[in-house]
Specification:
By secondary structure, this protein is an alpha/beta fold. Helices cover 44% and strands 15% of the residues. It has a single domain, classed as TIM Barrel, CATH 3.20.20. The longest helix has 25 residues.
């Protein structure tokens, strides 16, 4: 069966002020939507509306192994031992996987899970004594290794929970990577910027994480919906696919994107708006947008081209289901 459409990760629902039972129901509904609309390439939903432990950063810290963290007024910070918020984030991840496992009985498609990448975590998490992990070479290395070790266990857990999945994809989310490379990440004071990380070092940290995913038997892909996504760099670091927002692509990305498609790697094209557009949108409009890009690249549609929303759908409370349905409908029309 061809894999044609999927979601990026986040979905609407949940509330930091809601009780646990209400948030559990919200999560179960998100799983039903995903399995119903994109059943051939389903993703484990993320509901960041439930609070810090459910955000991209909270989820990434929940997956990592061997390092502790806690939530401070300024955000997440690494610690010697896991604090109560870190333990809650891990517990929430386990509960979500329980809920997904329950509804995914008999699932035989491709299963995708998402995790914040090492550079996005380094740019958003603080060291024990303050300032970002990004400022400390040793802390950056430890964080990458802890994430890699945790992902090996995470992939094994996914395989145990959903044994019928035809394959497992781990999407490494790196929205901060372009800013890290361009010295655009603010320091703790807000008065300066962290030094740029040079491409070889950026690649090395990604290699550790992507190699761990591949070694665990899953397919590592890298996603970013930020401008300046360095597709060639992440592919050189071991990504076996990329996920991009079509509206954020520029000419400097075209050759690397074309190479990925021609190489048969999974290429997720974000062609459906992540918020409801002001004008009605049809499958035909989405297909035309994808075909324009492929024509510009001199390529024809292939089965490794997957249609997705442009980015996460956390803010699309009345649009998320329709956005996934549009992605699936456009993919059928594209490959029909």
């Amino acid at each position: 069966m061809s894999v044609l459409a999927t979601g990026i990760g986040s979905m609407p629902g949940g509330d930091v002020l809601a009780n646990e039972a209400d948030n559990a129901r919200s999560y179960a509904e998100a799983v039903r939507v995903v399995l119903g609309e994109v059943p051939d390439f389903a993703h484990v939903p993320e509901l960041p509306g439930r609070g810090a432990g459910a955000t991209m950063t909270g989820r990434g810290l929940a997956v990592m192994s061997g390092l502790g963290a806690d939530l401070q007024p300024a955000g997440w910070r690494l610690t010697d031992h896991s604090g109560v918020d870190h333990r809650r984030a891990r517990s929430l991840l386990a509960q979500d996987l329980d809920a997904f496992e329950e509804q995914a009985q008999g699932f035989t498609g491709v299963l995708k899970s998402q995790v914040a990448g090492p550079w996005t975590l380094a740019a958003t998490v603080e060291k024990p004594r303050g300032d970002k992990v990004l400022a400390d070479h040793g802390a950056r290395r430890e964080l990458s290794q802890a994430l890699a070790e945790g992902l090996v266990d995470h992939v094994a857990d996914l395989r145990r929970r959903v044994p019928g999945a035809s394959g497992i994809v781990v999407q490494v989310d790196e929205p901060a990577l372009p800013a890290v490379l361009a010295a655009q990440v603010p320091t703790a004071s807000g008065w300066g910027k962290h030094r740029a990380v040079h491409p070889p070092e950026a690649s090395a940290a990604l290699e550790v994480v992507l190699a761990a995913i591949a070694g665990a038997g899953a397919t590592p892909i890298v996603h970013s919906c930020a401008p300046g996504f360095p597709i060639a760099l992440v592919r050189g670091a071991g990504a076996r696919g990329v996920s991009v927002d079509l509206d954020m692509l520029d000419a400097s990305s075209y050759d690397a994107l074309a190479d990925a498609i021609e190489s048969g790697e999974r290429v997720l094209l974000g062609a459906v708006p992540s918020l409801r557009p002001s004008s009605p949108l049809s499958d035909k409009h989405v297909v035309e947008k994808v075909l324009r890009l492929l024509d510009m690249l001199g390529l024809e549609p292939t089965d490794n081209v997957v249609i997705t929303p442009a980015c996460g759908l956390a803010g699309a409370r009345h649009w998320a289901r329709e956005a996934l349905a549009l992605a699936a409908g456009a993919a059928r029309a594209l490959h029909g």
